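Worked Example 4.2. Consider the chain below.
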Amino acid sequence: MIEAGSRYETKKINGLSHFLEHMAFKGTKKRPNKLAISSLIDGIGGHFNAFTGKEYTGFYIKAESRHLELILDVLSDILTNSLFDTKEMDKERGVITEEINMYEDLPQERVGELFEKLLYGDHPLAWRVSGEKENIANVSRQELVNYAKNMYHSKSIVVGIAGNILRHPGTSEASDEQARGFAARIYSGKKILSGSALQNDDEISLQHDVSKFFGSVPTGEENKFEKVLEKQSKPQSVVYPKKTDQAHLCIGVRSYDMNHPDRFSLSVLGTILGGNMSSRLFSEVREKRGLAYYINADNAEFYDTGYFVTQAGVNLSNTSEAIKVILEEFDKLRANPPSQKELRRAKDFARGKMALALEDSFRVASYYTSQELLKKKIETPEEVLEKIEKVTAEDIQRVAKDIFVNQKLNLAIIGPFTDKNKFDKLLEI
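Applying the procedure from the previous section yields the following structure tokens:
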């Protein structure tokens, strides 16, 4: 996983992280085209893919553990030796443009973009991960090469491995210098292994494997990004007129960054409010009133900011009513703490959700790698659950009082609406 995503881009090259991700599997100096890569992975029954977010890009291969060296070889190859062939780039421009078109045609996706734009304005966190069509059409090969050179280096890469990866002793040891030449966390069973603290032959063997393929990654300066200045002082709304059979809305507030001490309380609050089918919003908006098919609540966390959002698809004629009900549920949590029964149910849900989230080796590797990359430290699942368990009903109410205030409200709506004022009145704008 690489510490490079859309928030590290400039306006001119917005979408470059995502474009680079698409191009990585198109061919390398060692494996000159996509078929050479895909046939190799297919030949061992493996699966490969990649993903791009606002603060990271990930590349992964899933295969039997006996193919670990091949996996590391291919991954290091695409990260350091991609060809970025101009003919392949031109073909991929069309692919990415159609990907953008697809999301623009999905109101559930588009309304989320509008909500983030409302929150962050022209800050990189508000930009599309996929970029704008004009950028995709005009980005040059040299810009792609320069971006990879500047962003893909030893201080920005974390290598994560999970699965049946214990080895036999006797493999050559990796030196401390090699171990610190890249950021590597290797997960095995219930133990986190770090290259700076080699303890046994298995750890040495695994560290040697990673060092062998990633030890040549060049060093670089830490990747920089534009910080968010929290300056909202009044509620905000945006209405995107579009002919739809259903109104799609996001209503939410600025909240906490990924290291904030109240993030666990906020997580439990989100579960109680709209995290599952027994949540307050699901029960009130869908089950009791029949206003929506889908409704949920969740929080997003970044390095230096975050937000809490409720998203729903609601009946066109009852859009205002649905917004009122959502705001009422916000106020109820401000006025009174949740019951002990609700709290217990939310914590049990978190425990089960964590178990499902780590049910295979890819998810385990992703979890630990993202922890190390984004937080620069590891919080094990057990530690996270322990902190969730300590959340009290009073903590939930305190957090609700902190974030659910009028001046922090943000509302984005997509639907056949022309009168923005009626929604502004609901927010007391």
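Residues 86-104 form the longest helix (19 residues). Residues 236-426 form a domain with the Cytochrome Bc1 Complex; Chain A, domain 1 fold (CATH 3.30.830.10). Compare this with Example 4.1 before moving on.
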